[in-house]
Design goal:
heterodimer; A: mainly alpha; B: alpha/beta; Rossmann fold; Alpha-Beta Plaits; 2 domains; 12 helices; 14 strands; elongated; disordered C terminus; antibiotic resistance (chain A)
C-alpha cells in the first residue's frame, strides 16, 4: 500500500451549495445509490412485481362473480372495479420496504457516516423515499399491463388517467414517509416489516378498495368513507371511469380528488417533519 | 502549538448510566491522541460527541476551530470519521461508495469521480473497484472505509477502534497508513482497547475508565508513573517460594508480589542488570532452582492494572448502554 498523501484541506473544491439546492442534490445522490442497490438484489424486484399480480389474479377469480358492484355480480365489472383497489394497495405495500430498509440502515454504521458528513439532514430519508417512488412507478406500469389483460380499461381519456396515476403515486409517496417514520421508531427491520402489515391490512381492507362500503355495518362504513385510502381509490375510479364510484354524502367521497390530495399532503408534512427530526437526533 | 480538538467537561447520560462523566481533552494540531480504555469505558460516546453524532448533556467542544453544537456542519466539513464498523454500502461497488461520499462532501460529480479513482489506487483497491463491497474481505472493507474518510483530505481524523477485528497482518498495514497520514500533518484522535496500539501510534494517551480520564500523558510518562523496572522470578519448586522471597526482599525496594500457582515472584527494583546478576547469585547460593528470571520494563498493561485494579480487557457489565453498541454489531456484520 502506498502512502496516501494528505495535502491541504482545500484540495478538491467543495461546491458551496446551501439550503434547498444542497438538499435536492444530496437527496438525488442518495436516491441514485438506493436505485443501484435495488438492481443488485434482483429478488426484491421480482417479489415487488409478482405480489400485486398475484393479488389481481386471486381477487378477480376468487371474489369476482360473488361481489355485487353497481347492482351487478358480473365478474368482468368486478375486475374493473378491483384494479384501482389493487393499484392503491400496491403503492401502500411499498411502505413496508421503506420502513424495513430505513430500520436496517439505521442499525448499520453507514448512517453514522452520513450523519458525520456535511450533507442536508433530510437527504438520507428523502433519497430513500424518492427511490421507492421510482420503484412504485415501475410496478404501476406492470400492473396496468396486467390489468388491461384482465379487462380493466381507461374510459375518461389520457389526461384524467395521468391525473389518477399521479394521485396514486402521491398517496404511495405519502405512505413511504409513514414507512420512514415507523422505520426510525421501531429500530429493527424485522419489527418494521411485521409491524407494517399490522396497520396496512386494516387500512386497505376497511375501505372501498375491494368491496362496496355500502354493504358494511354503519360504523365500519363510516371508517371506510373517511379513510384517506378510500378517497384516493374513489378519485381514481372517477378519473379512470371505472365502475363502483360510491355515492355518499360524506365529504371525502363527494370531493374525492381534493380529499386525496389533501390527505396525502398532510401525511407528508407531518411524517416527514417527525421522521427527519428523529433522524437528526438519532443516537443509535 | 494550535489545538485541533479541544473539549471540556463533556457529560453524557444514557438513562441512569453516566457514560461520559466530565471529560476534557486537547489535541495539538498534527499530533495523535489515543483514548485507551476497556469496552464500555465511554470512548465511543466521547468520539460521537466530538463528531456531532451525539449531543453532549453538558460541556463544550471545538474541532478544527468549530463548535460541535453551534456549527456542526463546520465540524463535519473538517473531519473524517472512521467508526468501529466499516461504514460502507454492501450493495455498492468500492468506486460507487467513494463517489457517493465525495458528492455528499459537496464535491462536483467529476471531482468525486477523480478522487475515488485516486483513492482506490492508493489503497490497493483498484482491482476490486467495480465489485460490490459485499465481496470484500475485512481488511479491504477497512481500507475502503478509511479511503471514504479521506475523500476531502480532512485536517482532523477520528478513528474509533480502527483495527478491531483485523488480523495481525492487516493491523500492521493499517498502522502504516495511519502513520503516513500523521506524517503528512493530519491530526488524529484514536480510540483503542489495545495497549500496544496506543503505545505504537499515539503521541499522548488518555486512559478512560467509567467515563472519566483517569490518567494522561505520553506512553513513557504513564509507564514511569507506575514506577520502575521489576525483577520477575519463576522458581522450579513451590517449596522455594519462601526462600526466593527472602532473597528478593533483601535486594529489592518494595513489596514482593507472589503468584503461587505460577510459582512467580515479582518485585520493583532499581539497579538494572547488575542487580539482576546479584539476585541470580544469591538464589544460586541458596540452592534455589529457577525456571525463568528477567528484568521487566513496565508495559501499558501494568499502567492499566495499577490505575484501575484490573486488566484492560475486563468488561463492565454495568455499562450496558455502550456495550450494546459496541458488541451487537460486529456479530451482525460477520453473519452477513
Amino acid at each position: 500500500m502506498t502512502a496516501p498523501t494528505v495535502p491541504s484541506a482545500s484540495a478538491p473544491a467543495a461546491l458551496r451549495t446551501t439550503g434547498v439546492g444542497r438538499s435536492v442534490r444530496d437527496s438525488l445522490v442518495i436516491t441514485k445509490c438506493n436505485l443501484i442497490r435495488v438492481t443488485r438484489v434482483p429478488g426484491m424486484i421480482i417479489f415487488m412485481l409478482v405480489q400485486p399480480v398475484l393479488f389481481v389474479v386471486m381477487f378477480s377469480y376468487v371474489f369476482g362473480g360473488s361481489m355485487q358492484i353497481g347492482g351487478t355480480t358480473d365478474s368482468s365489472v368486478y375486475r374493473e372495479f378491483l384494479m384501482v383497489g389493487i393499484f392503491a394497495q400496491t403503492v401502500i405495500f411499498a411502505t413496508v420496504a421503506t420502513s424495513a430498509g430505513i430500520a436496517d440502515d439505521m442499525r448499520k454504521g453507514l448512517v453514522d457516516r452520513f450523519r458525520a458528513l456535511p450533507m442536508a439532514r433530510g437527504a438520507v430519508l428523502t433519497g430513500r423515499t424518492l427511490a421507492d417512488l421510482v420503484q412504485m412507478m415501475v410496478t404501476m406500469v406492470v400492473l396496468a399491463t396486467v390489468g388491461s389483460l384482465v379487462g380493466w380499461r381507461i374510459h375518461e381519456g389520457a389526461l384524467k388517467a395521468a391525473a389518477a396515476f399521479g394521485l396514486l403515486l402521491l398517496l404511495g409517496y405519502a405512505f413511504t414517509w409513514v414507512g420512514a417514520l415507523t422505520g426510525m421508531l421501531v429500530g429493527s427491520p424485522e419489527a418494521a416489516s411485521s409491524g407494517g402489515m399490522m396497520w396496512i391490512i386494516p387500512v386497505t381492507f376497511i375501505s372501498n378498495a375491494f368491496v362496496d362500503p355500502g354493504q358494511m355495518t354503519p360504523w365500519l362504513r363510516h371508517v371506510a368513507d373517511w379513510n384517506p385510502f378510500s378517497a384516493t381509490v374513489q378519485a381514481c375510479r372517477e378519473l379512470f371511469g371505472n365502475p363502483g364510484v360510491r355515492t355518499s354524502d360524506v365529504w371525502p367521497m363527494e370531493h374525492a380528488v381534493e380529499a386525496s390530495l389533501l390527505y396525502s399532503i398532510v401525511i407528508i408534512a407531518i411524517c416527514r417533519t417527525l421522521a427527519v427530526r428523529k433522524y437528526r437526533n438519532a443516537t443509535s | 502549538m494550535p489545538v485541533a480538538i479541544h473539549a471540556e467537561g463533556l457529560v453524557k447520560h444514557f438513562g441512569d448510566v453516566r457514560a461520559v462523566d466530565g471529560v476534557g481533552l486537547d489535541v495539538p494540531r498534527g499530533s495523535v491522541l489515543g483514548l485507551l480504555g476497556p469496552n464500555g469505558a465511554g470512548k465511543t460516546t466521547i468520539v460521537r460527541m466530538l463528531t456531532t453524532l451525539l449531543r453532549p448533556d453538558a460541556g463544550r467542544a471545538e474541532v478544527a476551530g468549530f463548535d460541535v453544537l453551534k456549527d456542526p456542519d463546520g465540524v463535519r466539513r473538517s473531519i473524517g470519521l472512521s467508526g468501529q464498523f466499516a461504514a460502507v454500502d454492501d450493495y455498492l461497488t468500492g468506486r460507487e461508495n467513494l463517489q457517493m461520499v465525495g458528492q455528499l462532501y459537496q464535491l462536483s460529480a467529476r471531482d468525486a469521480k477523480a478522487r475515488a479513482k485516486e483513492l482506490l489506487e492508493r489503497f490497493d483497491l483498484a482491482k476490486a473497484a467495480d465489485r460490490t463491497a459485499k465481496t470484500y474481505s475485512g481488511g479491504m472493507r477497512r481500507r475502503l472505509d478509511l479511503a471514504a474518510t479521506l475523500v476531502i483530505r480532512p485536517p482532523v481524523m477520528v478513528m474509533d477502534e480502527p483495527t478491531t477485528g483485523l488480523d495481525p497482518r492487516n493491523r500492521l498495514a493499517l498502522w502504516g497508513v495511519i502513520q503516513d497520514l500523521v506524517k503528512s500533518g493530519t491530526t488524529l484522535l484514536l480510540t483503542t482497547q489495545y495497549l500496544e496500539e496506543a503505545d505504537h501510534l499515539a503521541h499522548e494517551i488518555c486512559v478512560i475508565d467509567h467515563g472519566r480520564v483517569i490518567a494522561r500523558g505520553t506512553s513513557d510518562h504513564l509507564k514511569s508513573q507506575i514506577g520502575r523496572e521489576r525483577v520477575e522470578v519463576v522458581v522450579h519448586r513451590r517449596d522455594d517460594i519462601a526462600g526466593a522471597r527472602e532473597v528478593l526482599t533483601a535486594r529489592a525496594r518494595g513489596e514482593v508480589t507472589i503468584d503461587d500457582h505460577m510459582r512467580r515472584l515479582t518485585v520493583p527494583v532499581t539497579g538494572g542488570a547488575r542487580l539482576l546478576a546479584d539476585v541470580i547469585r544469591d538464589l544460586d547460593e541458596r540452592g534455589i532452582e529457577i525456571d525463568d528470571i528477567g528484568l521487566r520494563r513496565p508495559t501499558l498493561d501494568d499502567v492499566f492494572i495499577s490505575l484501575t485494579g484490573r486488566a484492560a480487557e475486563a468488561d463492565e457489565p454495568g455499562d450496558a448502554a455502550e456495550n450494546d453498541q459496541t458488541e451487537d454489531q460486529p456479530v451482525k456484520e460477520t453473519v452477513k
